[in-house]
Design brief:
Blueprint lengths: L7 H8 L3 H22 L3 H18 L6 H22 L8 H9 L3 H14 L2 H12 L4 H8 L3 H20 L1
Helix pairs in contact: 1-2, 2-3, 2-4, 3-4, 6-9, 7-9, 8-9
Length: about 170
Amino acid sequence: MSAAAISPNLFEAARLGDPHAIASLLETAQPDIRRYARATCRSSADAEDATQEALWILFRHVGTIRSLLAFSAWLFSVVRRECLRLARRAGVVAAIDDGEAEALLLARPEADLRLDVAAAFEALPPHYRDVALMRDVKEMTIDEISTALGASRQTVKARLHRARALMREYLTR
């Protein structure tokens, strides 16, 4: 999706919860979401399901997207995850184990891996990204993160687990 197709004013209004702006954003994004889903999913039925789920996720989480520049990457990662989830549910794609994931990552040139890791962080929803950056980049403890975010230890641990799973999925796709 081209961020240029969406005006900054429309995006900001949708982010702030304006129902008309959200409807307009969904309508503007739908063709690109559908086109990407058709190219990514294994069947046209899965592409339609992934499109609908991506639109639903966009509707629910538009307020959490940090900027218009991050919008496209975030939205396409949602579509990719949905296509992968549907393929796994159908038994087409097997889950990758940690050993295979590590081997795939180590086979990449370091410069490419750095760019991929940065893109994986950027693709995370903000509440997962913040926890992952605090823990894995700033090397904060769970208690420090919990205090900084005003969240429980369990919440921080759950978000960190989910963030790492999403990054693993992003990096090994």
